[in-house]
Structure formats: structure tokens, C-alpha cells
């Protein structure tokens, strides 16, 4: 199962708990004062990542779980003439 993560910059208040708990997965957003952004979620254990996501006081970190990371790119659906 694949996890896609994004930070809703309108809901993010810059508390920084996600960055404190998972500094290699989250970073400060460039060009915006006190907003978090996703850096590389695969650099931390899933349990730590989930704790960092849950620590957001405004629930600005959104997670999407998917069985197939790109269902539209499945080779069984491609048709070449």
C-alpha cells in the first residue's frame, strides 16, 4: 500500500511538530513564513511518520492511501496501435 502525503498550506500554522518529530520527512516551506512542507517521507519509519502526521494541531497534513500508486499507468490498461 502506498502513502501519499501533502501539507495543506492554508491550514498549516507552522507549529513545527511534524518537523521536530520527523526532520527528514518534513521541512519548512521555502518562500512562506512558518509553513511546513513534505521533504522525503520514505526516510523515516512509518510509525514515526504517522506520529508526526497525528501531531499536527490543525490536521493540515493529509494522507491518501492507495493500493496502486498510479492506477492509470497500469500496463494492462495501455493500448498501443
Write the layout of secondary structure elements.
Blueprint: E1 2-7, H1 17-21, E2 26-28, E3 36-38, H2 46-54, E4 61-66
Write structural notes for this entry.
There is one protein chain. The protein has one domain: Alpha-Beta Plaits, CATH 3.30.70.20. The strands form 2 sheets. The chain has a two-stranded antiparallel sheet with strand order 1-4. A two-stranded antiparallel ribbon has the order 2-3. Mean pLDDT is 86; it is low at 76-81. Strand 2 and strand 3 (36-38) form a beta hairpin. The longest helix is centred in the middle third of the chain and has 9 residues, at 46-54. The protein is an alpha+beta fold and 81 residues long. It has helices at 17-21, 46-54; strands spanning 2-7, 26-28, 36-38, 61-66.
List the keywords.
17% helix; Alpha-Beta Plaits; disordered C terminus; 81 residues; single chain; two-stranded antiparallel sheet; 4 strands; alpha+beta
Domain module count: 1
Mean pLDDT: 86
Radius of gyration: 15 Å
Largest sheet: 2 strands, antiparallel
One letter per element, helices H and strands E, the order comes to: EHEEHE
Helix vs. strand class: alpha+beta
Number of helices: 2
Q: Please give the order of strands in the largest beta sheet.
A: 1-4
Indicate the low-confidence ranges by residue numbers. Answer: 76-81
Q: What's the total number of strands?
A: 4
Estimate the global geometry from the Cα principal axes: globular
Distance between the termini: 32 Å
Strand content: 15-25%
Which CATH class applies here? Alpha Beta
Helix content: 10-25%
Under CATH, the topology is which? Alpha-Beta Plaits
CATH architecture: 2-Layer Sandwich
Amino acid at each position: 500500500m502506498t502513502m501519499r502525503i501533502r501539507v495543506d498550506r492554508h491550514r498549516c500554522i507552522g507549529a513545527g511538530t511534524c518537523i521536530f518529530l520527523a526532520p527528514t520527512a518534513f521541512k519548512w516551506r521555502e518562500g512562506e513564513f512558518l509553513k511546513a512542507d513534505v521533504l522525503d517521507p520514505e526516510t523515516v519509519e512509518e510509525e514515526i511518520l504517522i506520529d508526526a502526521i497525528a501531531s499536527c494541531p490543525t490536521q493540515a497534513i493529509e494522507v491518501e492511501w492507495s493500493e496502486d500508486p498510479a492506477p492509470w499507468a497500469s500496463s494492462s490498461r495501455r493500448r498501443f496501435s
